[in-house]
Amino acid sequence: MILATPLSDEDCGAQSMPDASPVKWHLAHTSWFFETFILEVYEPDFAPFHPAFRVLFNSYYEGVGDKHPRPQRGMLTRPSLAEIRAYRANVDLRMQALLLSDICDDNCLRLLELGMQHEQQHQELILTDVKHLLSLNPLKPAYLPRALQAMPVQTELEWNTFDAGVVEIGYRNGGFCFDNELPSHRQFVESFAIGSRLISNIEYLMFVEQGGYENPAYWLSAGWDWRSSNQIAHPLYWQRQDDGAWREFTLHGMLPLDPHAAVLHLSYYEADAFARWAGARLPTEAEWEYAVGELGNEGRQFFGTAWQWTSSSYAPYPGYAIPDGAVGEYNGKFMVNQYVLRGSSGATPLGHSRASYRNFFPATACWQYSGIRLARSL
Amino acid sequence: MILATPLSDEDCGAQSMPDASPVKWHLAHTSWFFETFILEVYEPDFAPFHPAFRVLFNSYYEGVGDKHPRPQRGMLTRPSLAEIRAYRANVDLRMQALLLSDICDDNCLRLLELGMQHEQQHQELILTDVKHLLSLNPLKPAYLPRALQAMPVQTELEWNTFDAGVVEIGYRNGGFCFDNELPSHRQFVESFAIGSRLISNIEYLMFVEQGGYENPAYWLSAGWDWRSSNQIAHPLYWQRQDDGAWREFTLHGMLPLDPHAAVLHLSYYEADAFARWAGARLPTEAEWEYAVGELGNEGRQFFGTAWQWTSSSYAPYPGYAIPDGAVGEYNGKFMVNQYVLRGSSGATPLGHSRASYRNFFPATACWQYSGIRLARSL
Amino acid sequence: MILATPLSDEDCGAQSMPDASPVKWHLAHTSWFFETFILEVYEPDFAPFHPAFRVLFNSYYEGVGDKHPRPQRGMLTRPSLAEIRAYRANVDLRMQALLLSDICDDNCLRLLELGMQHEQQHQELILTDVKHLLSLNPLKPAYLPRALQAMPVQTELEWNTFDAGVVEIGYRNGGFCFDNELPSHRQFVESFAIGSRLISNIEYLMFVEQGGYENPAYWLSAGWDWRSSNQIAHPLYWQRQDDGAWREFTLHGMLPLDPHAAVLHLSYYEADAFARWAGARLPTEAEWEYAVGELGNEGRQFFGTAWQWTSSSYAPYPGYAIPDGAVGEYNGKFMVNQYVLRGSSGATPLGHSRASYRNFFPATACWQYSGIRLARSL
Amino acid sequence: MILATPLSDEDCGAQSMPDASPVKWHLAHTSWFFETFILEVYEPDFAPFHPAFRVLFNSYYEGVGDKHPRPQRGMLTRPSLAEIRAYRANVDLRMQALLLSDICDDNCLRLLELGMQHEQQHQELILTDVKHLLSLNPLKPAYLPRALQAMPVQTELEWNTFDAGVVEIGYRNGGFCFDNELPSHRQFVESFAIGSRLISNIEYLMFVEQGGYENPAYWLSAGWDWRSSNQIAHPLYWQRQDDGAWREFTLHGMLPLDPHAAVLHLSYYEADAFARWAGARLPTEAEWEYAVGELGNEGRQFFGTAWQWTSSSYAPYPGYAIPDGAVGEYNGKFMVNQYVLRGSSGATPLGHSRASYRNFFPATACWQYSGIRLARSL
C-alpha cells in the first residue's frame, strides 16, 4: 500500500498495456489470493466480501472459473480505489482472525506463506508497471523525488572461470521456495567463465553507437524481426536529445544516462545481440546458479541491481510435479516460450534474492529491470 | 463540469475504446479549443497555461501541429483531474477578460460562438462515452439514480406523404450554424412517405426474434460481414437474461427493456437491415429535412429522442467552402465513408436541435443514441 | 479466353490480393453464372458439370448457399486450367442447345443478357487483376508486347459550364442496363463547370513534386491515414528511378511515364486530394451524367481512357427495387462505403460505355484504371 | 525433381501459407544454394544464370543481401516452372564441371556436402508443403495413388528405463553432420523411462473424446490460448464425418483414420497436453538421444515414422561456434522460441535419420509429420 502513496487515484486505475496491470488491480488481486485460496477453504461461515470480485480479480486461474479479460483491467473504474482499500482491510482482518484461531493447519500455513511471497512479487510488478505507465506520458512525471546518489565506481570486467563437472541445481535449504525451484537435481556443466559484474550503460552505448542495432549478424532471426517491426534502436527508456546526449526515463523522471550504472530494461533479443557483439554469450541458468554458489559474496551485482537474462528456456526440472488444485497453476503452465532471468533488481523485495530463484519472461519483454551478465565457454 | 459530478476521478480518466475519450480529456480539450483558437490569437502577451497542453489536448487539427495519439488518451493520468479543473478555470477567466476588453472583433466572436457550440457537442459525447465505459464494467454501475418515468403510450405508426418537387435544403435563418449546413441550396425529391414516429424496442425485438440477424437477405454485404466478425445478434446495450427476458444497460444501470421506448444504439447496418425487413428504407437527409419543415411541431420524435440514420453519405453541399485556418478542419475533412444522422437525442444540448443539423458517424458506430425512422418511395 | 492467351498456367492460377481473383477463377465463375442461374432452372434433366463447382465458383451469392472463401481462391490449383476450359466448353454447348430449343422464355433471355454483360465485366477485371499480379513480380514482366503509339497531343484544360436546373438521371433507352441505373428519375443540379478532359500524368506529377503527398491540408482525414499507414507517395504503378526519372508499370512492362497520357490507378483519396490542390473538386455523378448528355461527342475522354471518380457515394436511386432471387444480390447489397466511377477505361468492353453506367469501388481502391476529371461549383 | 512429377504447373506455383513455399521455389532455392555459395566463389568467370535470381531465391541469408519477401513467394508466376527446370539443369552442369576440375578444394567439398544435405531437407519440405496446399482444396485431391498397406500390428506400450548418469550428447562419428549437432559434450540425466513406441491414433482419439481439448488443466497457458483463438479441437488433418467416423487427409487423399498408425501433425502444445493427460511428459532431447544410443535397433519407431517433440528448447550446445560467412546463418540464428524434434518421418530422406539430428519448429507448428513419444521421471 505504501507503494501507492505517491500516486493519484487516476494513476492507480490506468493500464498501460495488456502485459501490465493497474496498481489498483494489483492491490485487489493480492488480497483476492488470500480470500480465494485460504479464507474460502478455512474460514467458518465464509462469505465473500463481494461476490463479483472472485471473477474481477482472478488473474489466470482456470480452476477458479471465469476471469475478467486481462486487457480490460483498466476499464474497472468501479470498484473505486477506496473500495479496494476497504477490501484489503477486510481480508487482512479476517486473515488475522483465522491465524489466531486453531483452524489454520499446515497446508493453510503453506498457502499463507505462498500468499505473502505472491504479494511481494506483485510489489515489484507495481513498480515496473507504474514506470511503464508514466513513461508513456509526454510530461514524463517522476514517481519519487530523486535521492542523492554517489556515482558508482566502475570496475574492470573480469572473468571468473569454472571447471567442468556435475553440479547441484535447485533449492535445497529449509524454508520457503517456489515449486519451480524444485526438485534439486544434478546437471553437468562444461567449463566456462562468467563476468564479474553486469554490463554498464557506457558499454551498451558503444554497441548502440557502433551500429549494433543495424547489423543482422549480431541478432537472432526472430530478434531482428522484432527490432525491425517495432523500429527499436536503443533500450526502452533511453531517449536521445537534440544535442546528442542520452537521457533515461526513471521513477525519478528523465535523468542523464549514468554511464557506469548497469544497463537496464533490455529484451532477451537485445541482451543476446550485445553478447554476440562482445564475443561472448549469455550464461545458462545452471552456470549462473553454480557460479553464485561458488563465488558467494565475492560475486558482484548478482542481486539487487538487475535481473539477468540466461540462455535457458523456462522448463520444468527433472521430476517437477505440479501442486494439486488451482494453486498448481502458479508456475508450471507458463513453461514454454519464456526465458529464465536470475538474480534480482533494485525493485525486488529482499526475501526474493536467492541463488535458486527463477524469474521468467518472453524474449520480447523489456519493461522489467532486466540486464546483462556475460559468459563464455572455455 | 456538472456532468462529471456523479463520476470518480478514476471514471474521468479511463478510455473505453479508441473512438471514445476520457471525460477528463473532453473537459481539457474544450478549453484547449478556446485557448488555441482565440486566446493565442487575441490575448495580449499570450502565454499558454502549460506548454505541453497544446499537443496533449489537440484532437485532430493538423494545422496546430503534433497531437497526442488518440488511442493513448487514457494513459494521461497526469495532468490530474484537479489540474484540468484549474486549467478550465484559468481559460474561463482569461476569456472573460478578453470579452470585457475591446479586443474581441467579429471574427473573435464567431470563434467564441463556435467554441461554445463545440463544447456542447462534447457534452453529448461525455454522456455517450461514459455510458460505454460503464457498460464494460461487469458490475454494470449506474451513472445516475433512476427518475420515475411514465410509460410512454405507443401510437400507431403512420405515414406522412409528400409530392415530388424542388426543395430548399440547408440552414437559411440568421444565427449560428455549422459550416456543413451551408450553403442553402436546391434538391429535387421524388414523392415519398416518412414514418410518423421512431421504431420502438418491441418492433425491433420482432426483427431480432424472427431471425433478422441470421438472414443475409436483409443486410448490406459489408453489414453482414460486420455482424459476423463481431458476432452481433442484438443492439449494443441489450442483454438477454437466463429467463429469456431482455434488459438494457442505461445511464441508470441495467433496466428491463421498455417495449414502447424508441430503439437506440443501432449501427447504420442494423438500421438499414431493419428497414429492409420492414419493407421500407431509411430516408435521405433531404427527405428528412423537408419533412420536418413541412410537418413542424406535428411531426413526432424528430428531436430529443434519438439521432436518426439517413441513407445519405456525409458529403459537402454544392458550393461548400472550407473555412480558412485550422478551424477549417472542423467538418470538411471527415466527409467520406460516414453517414448522416438527423434530429437529436435525449443527451443532445437543446440548442443543437434544428432541422438542418448534420450529425455523422461511420456505418459501424452504435455507441451513440442512434435510432430508426422509416421512409418509402411512392 | 483470348485474354488468357499470353498467360501461363501458373499466371492463371495465382491470386495477388484478396480483392483480385485468379484468371482461372474468373473463367470458371462466368460460366458458373450461366450454369447456376439459367441451366439449373431451364435445362431439362439438369445435372451439374461437377457438384463441387457450385460452391467453388460462387462469388458472393448468399442465396446460392456456401461459397469458397475469397482470399483462398489462389489455393485452387485443382481443378486445373484445362478442366476449367472443359467446363466452359460444356456450359457453352448446353447453353447453345437451350437457346435452340423453345424452352428459353423471356426471363431466361433476360438472364442470358445479364450473364453476357457479367462476363464482359469480368473481362475487364482479368486485365486489372493480371496487371496487379505481374506488378508484384520483381522481374516486371509484360503481358503483351508494346504496340507503337503516337504520343497523344495534350490540349489545354477547358471548363464546360452548365446552368442550374432539374435534370433526368438514369437509363431511359431501350435495351439492356443494370438494375443500379434504374429507375430514371429527376435531380436538381446547381450551376457547375466540368473539365474538358482528364488530368494528365504531367499535371499529377506537379502535385507529387510540390509536396502534395506531404501536406494534410489537401487530404480527407481518412485519406491521410490511408496514405500514412501504407506509406504512399505516388500512384500505385509509378516508380522513381535512381536517376530521378519516373517509370510506370503497364501491361507492356515498365515504360517511361508518358507525360500527356491520363493519370491512372488513383484511389478516391488521391483524386480528391489532387482536386483540392488544384482548387477544384470531383464532380457528382449527376453532374457527370448530365454533362455527357449535353456535350455528346464534343466531350473529350468521357469513355475509353479511365474510369472517373465522382464524389457520389454509391446509393440506390429513388424507387430502386432489388430484383427477386439470388440475382438480386448483383448490385444492391454493395451500396455502402463505396464511391461511383463514371465513364470507362481502355480495358472496358465496348458495350459498357454509356452515360448512365455506374461503376463503384471503395475509396482505397487503386488497381482499377481510375483517373480524374475535375469540376467546380459556379 | 521426381517429387514434382504428380503435380501440375499450377500446383507447383501456389503457396498455401507464409510458413510454406511453392514447390517451384524449393526447386529454385536448392539450386540457388549451390550457385551462390559454391559457384560464385569457385567458378572461373562466374556469371549468374539470371541476375535477379540472387534475390528471388534467397531464403533468409542476410549476408547475401536483399531477399524476396517470404509471404510473396506464391506471386512469382515468372520465372515459369520450365525456366526453373532450365536453371536447375544449368547449375547441375556447372557443378559437374567444377567437380571434374581441380579447383574444388576441401572447403568447396564441405559446401557441396552441405548443399546436398540442404536439398534433402527441402525434399521433405516439398512433401509437407504440398500436403498442406492440397488439404486446403475442398476437392481433397490425392498427391499419389494409395499403395496397399498391411495394417500395422499395435504392440503394448512399454517403458524402457535408464539410470541417472553423465551421458555424451552430440555428433561424434566421422562424416557429415550439421553445425547444431556440435560440439559433442556431456550432460547429466536423472533416471528416466521412455516409451517403447509412438502414440497411436486410437490413443490420441481417446484424449480427444474424453474432452482433452476442453480441459485447461492439461494445457500450457499459451497452448490453451492457441487452441482457443484458432478453435482447434483435433489434429490438423483429421475430419469428423457426419456419421461420427474420423477420416484423415493424406497424400493419398482422405482416408479412414487408421487406429494403430502413429498420430501425426501435432503441435508441441497438443503433444504436451496429451502427455500430461496420460500422466507422463515429453522427453528431453538428451534423454531421447541417450535412449537411442542404448537401445539401438531394439527401439521401435525412433526413425521413419514421425518427428518426435522433445521438451527441449532449441539452443546451442556448450561451445557451439557459428561458421563464418553467410553459411553461418544456417542454424544458429534460429535458436530461440523453437522446440527440438528428434527422429525422422516417412518423408525424411534416408541419410537424415541419425541419433544426433536436431529438427526444430515453433510450438504452434503442426504441418510437419510430428508425433509423440512419452517419457517419465523415475
Report on this structure.
The structure is a homotetramer of 378-residue chains. By secondary structure, chain A is an alpha+beta fold. Chain A has a four-stranded mixed sheet with strand order 10-9-8-11. Chain A has two domains: 2-136; 159-377, paralog of FGE (formylglycine-generating enzyme), CATH 3.90.1580. Chain A has helices at residues 9-13, 23-42, 53-56, 81-100, 106-136, 201-209, 221-229, 268-277, 285-295; strands at residues 159-162, 165-169, 185-189, 192-195, 238-240, 246-250, 253-256, 306-313, 339-344, 359-361, 370-371, 375-377. Chain A is globular, with a radius of gyration of 22 Å. Chain A binds chain D through residues 60, 62-63, 164, 166, 185-190, 192, 216-217, 219-224, 268-269, 272, 281, 284, 311-313, 315-316, 318-319, 333-337, 363, 377, and chain D through 60, 62-63, 164, 166, 185-190, 192, 216-217, 219-224, 268-269, 272, 281, 284, 311-313, 315-316, 318-319, 329, 333-337, 363, 377.
